[in-house]
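Input.
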Amino acid sequence: MFSPARPHRADVLLAVSGLSGGAVLWMIGIHVQNGRLFDAPWVSLLPLVLMSALELLRRTAPRTALSVGTLALVADQFTVGSLATLLMFTDLVYAAVLYGPPAASRRIPVVTLLVTVATTVGFIAWKPSADAVLIGIVVGMVSFGPALTGVSVRNHRDAAEAARLRADQTALLAEMDRVQAVTAERSRMARELHDMVANHLSAIAIHSTAALSIDDQGTSRDALGVIRQNSVDGLTEMRRLIGLLRDSGASGPPSTAPTLASLDALVEQAGANSASSGLTVTLDDGREASGPLPAPVELAAYRIVQESLTNALKHAAPGPVTVRLERSHTALTVEVSSVFGDRPGPRAPGSGAGLVGMRERVTLLGGTIGAGPGPGGDGVRIWVVRAELPVDERAGRG
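Output.
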C-alpha cells in the first residue's frame, strides 16, 4: 500500500519535470521504438503518467514505487515508448536502493545484475548480433547502473552518519568528563578549604567566647593570644590555598601540601588551642621506618588528624585526646580518640562537613573510615575516629 506520508518537495519537482518533459517529447513526436502492439502515440502517455505519479513515492514507499514502476516499464515496451518514462524508471531503481531498507539495498543490485546478464545472454542466443549486445548494455544502464550508484551513495551516507554519531558521542563523553573534572575539583577545593580554616576558626570562636564570658584579665589575654596565633596561621593557610589555585598547571598534590612530618607541630598547636578546655593532646606514632608514603596518603592522613582534633576541640569532654599512627605493609592506620560526653564552657557549632570531607578523602584512596563510640576504661566513654589508608602503588596514583 502507498505510504500516507507527504511526498518530499524534490520528489514533486522530479514528478512534474518528468511528466512535462515526456509530454513535450510526445507532442514533437519523439519516441524510442516503433512497430509495437499499440502503435497509437497517445497510449505511451499512460505509462508516462503512472511513472510520474510513482516518483512521488520514491522516498516514502521506494519498494512499492519500484515494483509498480517495473510493470509500467514493461507496459511501455508495447507502445511507441517515451524516453522520459525510461529515465524516471532509472531514478526509481536508484531511490529504492538509497531509501529502501538495508535488505532491499543489498538485493536490488544483485537482481538487476542477474536480469542484465540473463537478458544479454537470451538475446544473443535468440539472435546473435551486435544489437543483442546493445540491448544488454541498455538494460544494464537502465537497471544495474542506477542500483550500483545507489549503493555507492548509500554507503557514503551511512559512513557520514556513523562519523557524525561518533563525533556526537565523543563530544558527549568529553562534556561528561569536563563536568566530572569540575565537580571533583570543586569537591577537592571544598575539602582543602574546610580542613585549612575550620581548625583555626573553631579555636578563635571558642577562645573569643571565653574572653567575652569570663571577667578575668589573665584569661582574656591568654584567649586573645590564642586568637591572634590562629588568625595568623589561618591567614597563612588561606594564602597557601590561593597559591595552589593559581598554580593551574600543577598536577597532583602541591609541593607545599602538609605531610606527616609536620604532625608534631599540628598536635602541639591543637594542645595549645584546647588547653583551656581541659584537653591534653598527645601523639603516639607507632610507624616503623619502611620507606616514604605516597603523597596523597600523607595528605589524607594529615587532614584526617587535623579534622579529628578540630572536632575534639568543639565537642570532646575534658580529658586526653590521643593521635595514634600505625603502618603495615599494606595500610596506614590513623586513629584519634577523645573523651565522649558533656563538657562545661563554650562550644563551636559543627556542620558535619568535616566528616563528609574525611570520608571523601578515604574513599578516593580506596580505604575505610569509621567514627563512633569506642571502648574505654574506668567507665569513661570515648569517641574514636579510625581510618585505614592503602599504601600500595595504586594509592600512590590516587
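The chain has a mean pLDDT of 82.
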